[in-house]
C-alpha cells in the first residue's frame, strides 16, 4: 500500500475541513505607526481591502490579514510572554476553528464577504517593538494569511469562516 496519496486523493484531502471557523476579533490599522483600532464589524470592498485600513486600495493581495486564534498562545510562549492582545499583532481578523494555511490559494467566505487566500502574512520588524526581542522569529510560521477581497461585504465578530469550493 502506498502511504502517499496521488494528486486526486491529495486534492480531495485538501478540500475537506472538519468544521467552519469563526471570527473572534476584528481591527483596522488606520496608518503606518498608528495603533490598531478594534471593531465589532469591518467592511471589505472588492479589489480594495478593508475600509479604514492603511492597506486599502493597494495591490489587493493583502486586502485583509488574518491570524489563527490558536496561534496566539504559541506566539506569546515563544516570545516569553504570559499572553498578548490581538492588537499587538496588527492583523485585521482573528479566526478560530479552521486552519488558515489550508485556505491559501482557496476561496472562503467570512460573513457577507468572499476572499481568496493569497499567501502567508509574514511578521514584520514591528513585532520586535511590540512583543520584545526575538518576537519576529517567534511569529515565523504563525503570522497568518493574507487574502484579496473577491466580493465585498460586512464581517462581524462571531461570523462563520467557511471554505468555498
How would you summarize this macromolecular structure in one to three sentences?
With 165 residues, the protein is an alpha+beta fold.
Question: Could you characterize the architecture of this molecule?
Answer:
This protein has 165 residues and is α+β, with helices and mostly antiparallel strands. It has one domain (20-164): PK beta-barrel domain-like (M1 Pyruvate Kinase, Domain 3), CATH 2.40.33.20. It is built from four helices and eleven strands. The protein has helices at 7-14, 72-78, 126-131, 135-139, and strands at residues 21-28, 37-39, 41-45, 49-50, 64-68, 93-96, 107-110, 113-120, 145-151, 153-156, 160-164. The strands form two sheets. A seven-stranded mixed beta barrel has the order 1-6-5-9-8-7-11. The protein has a three-stranded antiparallel β-sheet with strand order 4-3-10, with no helix packed on it. Helix 2 links the parallel strand 5 and strand 6. The protein is globular, with a radius of gyration of 16 Å. The protein starts with 6 loop residues before the first helix and ends with a strand.
* Residue share in helix: 10-25%
How would you classify the helix and strand content by structural class?
Answer: alpha+beta
Number of strands: 11
Shape: globular
- Using the coordinates shown, work out and report the CATH topology: M1 Pyruvate Kinase, Domain 3
Number of domains: 1
Sequence of strands across the biggest β-sheet: 1-6-5-9-8-7-11
CATH architecture grouping: Beta Barrel
End-to-end C-alpha gap: 30 Å
Mean pLDDT: 90
Oligomer: single chain
Q: Mind describing the biggest β-sheet? A: 7 strands, mixed, barrel
